[in-house]
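User: quick one, fold this
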Amino acid sequence: MQRNRPSFFRNSPVTGEMSSRDLEWLDTVSETITARKRQSLWMSRQQADRVFFVRSGLVKISLVSGEGRELTLHLLPRGSLVGELALVGNGMHDSQAECYEESVLYTVQRDDFLTLMRRSPSLTHNVMRVIAERRQDIERRVESLIFKTAHARLAGLFLRLAEQFGVRDARGVIVNIRLTHKEMAGLIGASRETVSFAILDLRKDGSILTDDKRVVILDERALEVLRDA
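Assistant:
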C-alpha cells in the first residue's frame, strides 16, 4: 500500500491540486496503517494530533452520551479525509472514530499537514470545503431530527446511503453496507425499536426489502415522497 500513496494523493479531491513538490513531501511525512474492524482511531476528549485519509474501508464518526446512547455523525468511505476538525479546533476531539470494517488509512501528523496548508492555498480551500459540506450535512440532519418523523428520517437515510453505497440490480438499488437496526437508529437519532417498526412498515408498503442486513430499495420515488413529507 505504501507504493500506492503517491497515486492516491495525486488523485484525491483534497490534495490532488497541490504542487509536485508538496505532494512528494506529503508522501514523505505520511504513514500507512492497517486497522481491524471496530478498531478505534480516537476517543472523545483525546488529543487531536493527526488526520487520516481512507485508502480502503469505512470509518464511523459518532457522539456518545453519558448514558451510552450513540449518534452517528458520518460514515466516511474510501477517499475521505477524516479528523479534519483537528486542523481548526482546540486540539481535542469531541467525537469518537472507529473503523466500521477492516480499513487501510494514510495518516499525517497535524503539524505537518498545517505546514502543507500554509504552503498550498488549494489544499486549504479543499479542507475548508470538506468542513463546510459536513457541517451543512449535520445541520440538515438536525433539522430532520426536529421536524421529521422517524419514518421520514429513515427514508432519507436509505436514500443517502444509496448515493454512497448503492449498487443497482434487477430488483432496485442495493444499499451495499450491512447495518443493524441499532446502527440505523444511531444514524437517525431514534431507538432501535422505532427503527424496527419503521422498517416493517416500509417493507409492507413495498418500498424496500431486506437481505442479510442490507436494504434493497424497490421504490425510490416512494422514499423521496416520505422523506420530503
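User: anything notable?
Assistant: The longest strand covers residues 50-56.
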